[in-house]
């Protein structure tokens, strides 16, 4: 019985996540904008704490840094789906520039690069090597700025 119930539940879970993936729940452009902005904002919260430590504005704490780096790495994959839907084009409520959809491959490449940067930062943080941490942080920060310069108002 338990086994049957368990596999039923996992089928339900699979079905739910599969349909959520197909639709991304973004039939509504406002929802897509809200989703990506919130995701970027939480990503930024984690990045900013690390930035304060790298700059020396707050004391470096290797444990906290590694936690923030883990969350940052997880979050760097989240925002981008909010840019992908037809109808999620910019309106008054977004700083996303139309150039994103004219240069979609470049935009996606930058988003993927950020995820690689975040993994490198996560590894440096886990190893606790401050020089490598600083370098990996700066690489990621340059990617934020590069993409914002091109695609954010
Ligand atoms: C691939 C391009 C790209 C990269 C890389 C990128 N951003 Fe952004 N970011 C955007 C765009 C486009 C917007 C505008 C989104 C909107 O308003 O709909 C944005 C908006 C934001 C916002 C504002 C969210 C809000 O509440 O409106 C924050 C904060 C942010 N980014 C932080 C970062 C940080 C920190 C990094 C690097 C760690 C980063 N971004 C990397 C494209 C990018």
What does this structure look like?
- The protein is mainly alpha-helical.
- The protein has a single domain (26-151), classed as Cytochrome c/b562 (Four Helix Bundle (Hemerythrin (Met), subunit A)).
- Helix content is 74%, strand content 0%.
- Helix 3 (62-75) packs antiparallel against helix 5 (104-127).
- Heme C binds at residues 33, 36-37, 40-41, 43-44, 47, 94-96, 107, 110-111, 114, 140, 143-144, 147-148, 151-152.
Spell out the key features of this protein:
single chain; 153 residues; Four Helix Bundle (Hemerythrin (Met), subunit A); 0% strand; binds heme C
Radius of gyration: 18 Å
Q: Based on DSSP secondary structure assignment, what is the total number of beta strands?
A: 0
CATH class: Mainly Alpha
Based on the structure given, which CATH architecture is correct?
Up-down Bundle
Signal peptide: 1-22
Keywords: Coiled coil, Electron transport, Heme, Iron, Metal-binding, Signal, Transport
Binding site for heme c: 144, 147-148
GO biological process, one term: electron transport chain
Topology overview:
Elements: H1 2-23, H2 29-55, H3 62-75, H4 99-102, H5 104-127, H6 130-151
Bound molecules: heme C.
Brief digest:
74% of the residues lie in helices and 0% in strands.
